[in-house]
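Predict the 3D structure for this chain.
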Amino acid sequence: MRVLQLLVFSTLSLWPLRAAACDLALVLAVDVSGSVDAEEYRIQMDGLAAGLRDGVVSEALVKARARVLLMQWSGQSRQEVTLPWSEVRSFADAEALAQRIEQAPRPWRNYSTAVGEALFLAVEQFAAVPECTRRVIDISGDGFSNEGVEPREAHGALSALGVTVNAIAIEQSEPDLTAYFFENVIRGEGAFVVTAASFADYPSRIRKKLVREVARQTAMAPHRDAGTVAALQ
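Done. Predicted structure below.
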């Protein structure tokens, strides 16, 4: 494991608990490897923005005082934080975030798939939001990891920091991808994989995924009222 990762994990594990200022810190990690063409990239970004605009999702983000970060990832050493942590305290904040995601430029086009490297970069970002009580990585992908560290090598760090990893498997060219993500990528209590048969299915599936991981979990928190919980059933 890299020295920087060890330092980050050690520092986080020793931080004293602080009063929570937010219920949720959410990393949105989007696959931009070479198997994703320009149209498919556009489908992902527009679909993600539409999912954040969904009334159930945006309301849950506001109630959670959520922090949301967008990263894009490809091959080894080709992952980046595209949009740093944004606090969602209002519907206007949610809309502004959706617009920034729609407008985000693509950093790479023709590189490999390094899922493990993406997970390590994502987990490092939580150092900036220690006040958030729940930490979630939402990772999309359309292929198996074929470069860099294996995804399982990140599991220890994820568990130590209480990070949940959920995934959306886009099986357009890899019909066994859901099983691979289930066995190697997702982590944490209640972690799950949502399957999109193709990129065309991505917008509806990412909306379902966001509702499940953001809205339902937020509604189940002790301070949520029964009416909000019922509305999500």
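The first strand starts at residue 22 and ends at 31.
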